[in-house]
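residues and backbone:
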Amino acid sequence: MNQPIIISDHYHYSFSAQHTPASKVACGQELFFKTLDCFSNKITCERDLTTHFDYDSANPATGPVYVEGCQPGDILVVDILDIRVNRQGVVTTLPGCGPLADTQEIRTKVLTIEDGHALFNDLPIPIQPMVGVLGVAPAEGSVKCGFPGNHGGNMDCKLITKGARLYFPVQVAGALFALGDLHAVMGDGELCGTGLEIAGEVSVRFDVIRQQPLSWPVLETDDRWYAIACAQTYPDALKFASEQIQQLICQRYEWDLTDGYLYLSLQGDVEICQACKPCPVDLIVRVGVPKRVGRPLISKGV
């Protein structure tokens, strides 16, 4: 069996086809990505405040890697095999960010992790490590790693944990996949703009599905399928995610759009990944439906 490839010391602050790949890999190869936290490991104590941080150094993504055989129009399949986080992270307020920003202090809290729990004041919080930033290069231009899009990016979805499977629309040759911005724990919405920001390692494995249309990233968990989309406004983000999951449902079940819409109202759940408004980052929505045995919404055979 091939030894895992380690991807480290290759950090970028945007997703772009112009970045030189850190490595070329084949589908089926296991990779370990070593990551910095969202502050590039530069905020480490309570004296370090986000008012003094250079946001050009925010949300570094490790990579990218060139996945052999991936071409525009394909789907890159990414299995999250494991996530390991360091023993210390930070949670902070950000200037002008979030619904309560006008009444809050700028504050950094350093939290340590022991026995699978982060200690917040006198309360232990079970950790659930997740990946905040992951995706492929966009077809044109570049997108800062702090922002989401149909390429993925800063999706900040708390369900992207060990065991999750992601599907990305490939937009450039080799996909140019990168990831970073781990959180030891984060609530839906990420209201103050940060989770428990932390460095660590993520192991993944790739596959590719040839020439199947996909407009937005799709997440597969143990029991559900989700489309993840974003926009500056909630109605637009909701529409984009709903359209993507509707398209997959109707294609798989051979229904027309209206039946797909009715089914979504019966079985679909709308959940918020990130909503720390006001904030220049788009609001991120996921719309999910239950899995049906033997009827996957995406597969090589569909």
Notes: The radius of gyration is 19 Å. Residues 234-253 form the longest helix (20 residues). Residues 65 and 186 are 27 Å apart (CA to CA). The chain has two helices and 23 strands.
